């Protein structure tokens, strides 16, 4: 059984901070559960373009307001608490945060925790021993 709290993650390497977001990584590949789980804050007033070419991501919004744009077709969706989106087609997308957005994100294959967005906004596949 794995039990973790947000307080345990805050001052560790599993609290990854970037220009427009902060990702607190609860589960990673090394945990051996087949997916990774992140508690992510997208900062108010920011825009982030992402394209997970190597991962399927499911995102559940639990706080805040913003919008999601599917860059393949220009369609825009409202983000608010209770909204889920899944990038099952590896869609290139943009998140615009009106307020801080708090999102629970699940990745498959699991992230190792060392990934950073490349120039395309993607996480490369990073191999790591369990």
Portion in helices:
under 10%
Order of helices and strands: HEEEEEEEEEE
Number of extended strands: 10
Which architecture name does CATH use?
Sandwich
Mean pLDDT: 91
Overall shape: globular
Radius of gyration: 14 Å
Largest sheet: 6 strands, antiparallel
CATH superfamily assignment?
A: Jelly Rolls
Terminal CA distance: 16 Å
SSE-based structural type? mainly beta
CATH topology: Jelly Rolls
Low-confidence stretches: none
Number of helices: 1
In the CATH hierarchy, what is the class?
Answer: Mainly Beta
Enzyme class: lyase
Family: Belongs to the ectoine synthase family.
Catalytic activity: (2S)-4-acetamido-2-aminobutanoate = L-ectoine + H2O
Keywords: Lyase
Task: Walk me through the structure.
This protein has 130 residues and is mainly beta. The strands form 2 sheets. The chain has a 6-stranded antiparallel beta sheet, with no helix packed on it. The two termini are 16 Å apart. It has 1 helix and 10 strands.
Key features?
130 residues, 6-stranded antiparallel β-sheet, 1 helix, globular, ectoine synthase activity
